[in-house]
Amino acid sequence: MKKLLEWKKSSIAILSIIVVLMLAACSSEDAGGSTGDSADSESVDSVKLVLNWFAKAQHGGVYAAQEQGYFEENGLDVTIEPGGPQVSSIQMVASGSAQFGLAHADQMVIARNQGIELVAVAAAMQGSPQAWMFHKGQEIDEFEDLNGRTVFIQPGITYWDYLKGEYDLSGAKEVAYTGQHVNFMDDETSVTQAFVTSEPYFMELENVETETMLISESGYDPYNVVLYVTKEYLEENKDQVQKFVTAFVEGWNYYKESPDEITKAINEANTDIALEALEFEQTSQAEFVYGGDAAEHGVG
């Protein structure tokens, strides 16, 4: 299974190079101010952004940009459309029904391997909050400790294939993850996929004490909540992409200073999730957004 590791490393390396080259191209155009697009700087372009999920705190920079008028200041009229289990931002952007999308970096690598030419232009999270969640006291310290346990995992999820390639997990019993945790709560020895920014909070509400282990401890740590466009759209609309990235980064910078204000705006956009749950995510995601490379180079 070394091929999977090599594939992952080479794919992310290719993606990283593309990001650098495309951002450099955008920055160059912006600094030179000589593009045909910039001559039409007073016009307003209507574009659509499809989120990777329903509105959550992980979209704080987007809603900050909308609330603070950063998109408008950059000549953009942005419609924000939520994602969800039946909505694929990649399919929508690839089909042209939306210009911008959010997805995780490994999802983009898979799309590119399928011939969908997407280009990452910014990243909100410098690392992945994906994790294993288990009942407190189960003494799960290594990935091999999953053997002999029921593992609730979404079929086809990339990091599970990666882990099975890196570790002998032949003794783990795979059960399809449904998004519900009833069976996990009933089986104290089981393990389930989770995001450390959300699921532990919901278990706390159920009076279930849990612990987590980040998938990134295995070396699998892709960027999360990545802003992307198609290669064709970028080539034809470099100025608009640069403006969107500028507003996106300004939004995340504002969110860092005033997260409570923006979290309330997100709650208004998604009333199906409690404000307290968004506040938990707001706090627990901070290191993923503003740590890592962002601590030195800034978000984006």
Question: How does this structure look, described?
Answer:
- With 300 residues, the protein is of the alpha/beta class.
- It contains 14 helices and 10 strands.
- It has a 5-stranded mixed sheet with strand order 2-1-3-10-4, with helices on both faces. Strands 7-6-8-5-9 form a 5-stranded mixed sheet, covered by helices on one side.
- α10 (238-257) packs across α11.
- The radius of gyration is 20 Å and the shape is globular.
- Mean pLDDT is 88; it is low at 1-40.
Layout of strands and helices, then pairs:
Elements: H1 2-32, E1 45-50, H2 60-67, H3 70-73, E2 76-81, H4 89-95, E3 100-103, H5 105-113, E4 118-125, E5 130-135, E6 150-153, H6 158-166, E7 173-176, H7 182-186, E8 191-195, H8 199-205, E9 210-214, E10 224-230, H9 231-236, H10 238-257, H11 259-269, H12 275-284, H13 286-290, H14 293-297
Parallel strand pairs: 1-2, 1-3, 6-7, 6-8
Antiparallel strand pairs: 3-10, 4-10, 5-8, 5-9
Helix pairs in contact: 1-10, 2-10, 2-11, 10-11, 11-12
Compute the average pLDDT. 88
Trace the largest sheet across and list its strands.
Answer: 2-1-3-10-4
In percent, how helical is the residue content?
40-55%
Task: Tell me about the largest β-sheet.
Answer: 5 strands, mixed
- Class by helix and strand content? alpha/beta
Number of helices: 14
- Give the distance, in angstroms, between the N- and C-terminal Cα atoms: 32 Å
What is the chain-wise order of helices and strands? HEHHEHEHEEEHEHEHEEHHHHHH
Give the radius of gyration: 20 Å
State the total count of DSSP E strands.
10
Unreliable stretches covering 5 or more consecutive residues: 1-40
Fraction of residues in β-strands: 15-25%
Shape: globular
